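Could someone model zinc ion with this protein?
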Amino acid sequence: MPKSTKIDKTIKKAIALALAARENAKSFRSKVGIAFEMYDGRLIPGFNIETYGHKGNHAEEVGLIIAMSEGYSGTDFRRMIEVYQDAGHEDIEVFPACPLDCWGRLLEFTHPYLEIVVADIHGNIHYSTMLKEMVSGIKPPAQVYPSNKIRLAKPKSNITPKLPLNKRLKPMYDSDLEFRQYCDEVLKVKH
Ligand SMILES: [Zn+2]
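Reply:
Sure, complex below.
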């Protein structure tokens, strides 16, 4: 089987999981479903939760918590598929994931080379990009947290990935100094 067909099949499965996860949304407004694909092939769903009183939870956050509860961290994440539709109208909507909050959350607990694939409720892919691209348009002095400096000053427990650094990330590890420092000094990922 050609490699691209195999990848397409995985993305299709991930989109189906994100759509199914979206049906679990506890919401009165927007329904969001995501699926994380891990570098060992595992797919992990996430859905959003809206509340009447306190803050809700975004699908990205819920998916991250499920993934973390299984020991995944940092460079274990390969891609995130996201499907969004507001309850307010029928038109197809394509949501670029949530600026600052979720981008920051993803950057903090995954890595800049996480692939982000955005699809609509019919399963059609509208674009795919890397987290690094999404967070790079912000003009200094504003930035999406956290920097390596903050991570090194405030080290966190239990963030070492459970998988060794995947070979797909090796070219970025070799060429991106900041990513290399994140892998070696913050995540302490095996490779
Ligand atoms: Zn979000």
